[in-house]
Amino acid sequence: SGTVNIQDLTKVYGEGDDELVAVDGMDLHIEAEEFVTVLGPSGCGKSTVMECIAGYLEPTEGEVLVNGEPVEGPDPSRGVVFQENRLFPWKTINQNVRFGPQMRNAVDEDRIHSLFGQMGLEGFEDAYPHELSGGMQQRAELARLLANDPDIMLMDEPFSGLDAMTKELMQENLLDVWEDDDRTVLFITHDVEEAILLADRVVVMTARPGQVKDVIDVDLDRP
Ligand code: ADP
Ligand code: ADP
């Protein structure tokens, strides 16, 4: 599972003179286990589309179906990562990573332990987010997301703030996670190289109001 069906999605912010059409009648189908990048100029509506899939925003018109069902609010099966991490600053990395499963009384110790290994965070369990480098914070954010075992990973420019070398390592890390665990990934970026490097398909959006301009199948050897 992990299909996403965006049908004639329109999102309008504000009213009257303040009305702003961010997304205008967008259609897109994402297969289960596909890695799709969304490329488009700043302000074209990428984050808005993602937040509609996440369930943080309600469409003005049209709908988003996940596994055939309309999205009704956020769900841990759809994990979100933003450019700036949303870790709780007053909680340790360990407390952050186990927060989601704890809320659902579903902490799997083995899984959490292996996530710390997989993300190279061993020894930093008791550190606070501000004590980690930017790259490690994003790895902690990924670990937090994966602790919920999401079918769908929604990533909004997650590596934009990182230096080139850290970014490359994070990209490899993400591809490993994706290849091992059969997850659907929707990855927003305005970096053309990153979009092509990571994806099965690149969705190119028009300038606002957002619509699909082109969908490109990528057939490159991954790093
Ligand atoms: P992108 O992610 O491609 O940069 P966004 O989805 O963030 O685009 O924004 C699309 C347009 O909608 C932009 O013009 C932005 O300023 C506007 N916008 C985004 N969020 C809001 C909001 N909460 N209220 C009003 N306008 C918004
Ligand atoms: P991005 O990095 O995706 O371009 P933005 O900086 O456009 O993100 O937006 C960051 C946050 O601010 C988002 O949650 C978005 O909804 C909100 N936002 C963006 N533009 C506006 C706006 N014109 N009015 C109100 N909120 C906005």
UniProtKB/TrEMBL annotation:
| Alphabetic keyword roster | ATP-binding, Nucleotide-binding, Transport
**Coiled-coil intervals, chain numbering:** none
Q: Does the keyword Nucleotide-binding apply?
A: yes
ABC transporter domain residues: 4-223
According to the record, the signal peptide region is none
Source domain of life is Archaea
Please name the GO terms that the record assigns under molecular function.
ATP binding; ATP hydrolysis activity
What this protein is called in its record is: ABC transporter domain-containing protein
Organism name: Halococcus hamelinensis 100A6
